[in-house]
């Protein structure tokens, strides 16, 4: 009588099989294994999309964390969340989940976040861009951020410089010298 009506939507569920698949995908990154597990991949993809489409912030964060295990498979979906208008926890998880990618597309979505006034967003963005290693003049930008008045930003910039330098050295050794680990 007169009270609000509540409708409950079933919470999305990630099956154990899908979590196992995501873990194994990272270890078995080759066409033969992937083709043998394509059906599981399709189910995993659908379940991750269900989580992202859920209205619950916690479901989106769960999906983004899972996508971070193998971001190359989720570039388009991750890029949807790399927007300063996203709630901070979702944005932070999307940046974090992009860390191990080498995607120019993800880097280009993160680059505008370097304009953020939020020290945490700046820190995550700098570290992720340094690791992706696809941003023009990032070294110069990191040098500027290393003199920022905010200690979180300053320390993240210094750590990002180390990551960026290591990536540059690795690229040089591989591309110029021909050294392979």
Characterise this structure.
This protein has 181 residues and is mainly α. It has a single domain, classed as Alpha Horseshoe (Leucine-rich Repeat Variant). 66% of the residues lie in helices and 0% in strands. The protein has ten helices and no strands. Helix 9 (138-145) packs antiparallel against helix 10. The longest helix is centred in the C-terminal third of the chain and has 27 residues, at 151-177. The protein is flat, with a radius of gyration of 19 Å. The protein starts with 15 loop residues before the first helix and ends with a helix. The model is unreliable at 3-8 (pLDDT under 50).
What are the key terms here?
single chain; 181 residues; mainly alpha; Leucine-rich Repeat Variant; 10 helices
Total DSSP helices: 10
The helix/strand order is HHHHHHHHHH
The Cα radius of gyration reads 19 Å
The CATH superfamily is known as Leucine-rich Repeat Variant
Q: Within the CATH hierarchy, at the fold level, what is the topology?
A: Leucine-rich Repeat Variant
> Which structural category fits the helices and strands?
mainly alpha
Tally of strands = 0
CATH architecture: Alpha Horseshoe
Mean pLDDT reading = 87
Give the overall form. Answer: flat
Q: Tell me the β content.
A: under 5%
CATH classification class: Mainly Alpha
Q: How many domains in all?
A: 1
Return residue spans where pLDDT drops below 50 for at least 5 consecutive residues: 3-8
Kindly report how far apart the N and C termini lie: 71 Å
Q: Main β-sheet: number of strands, strand sense, barrel status?
A: none
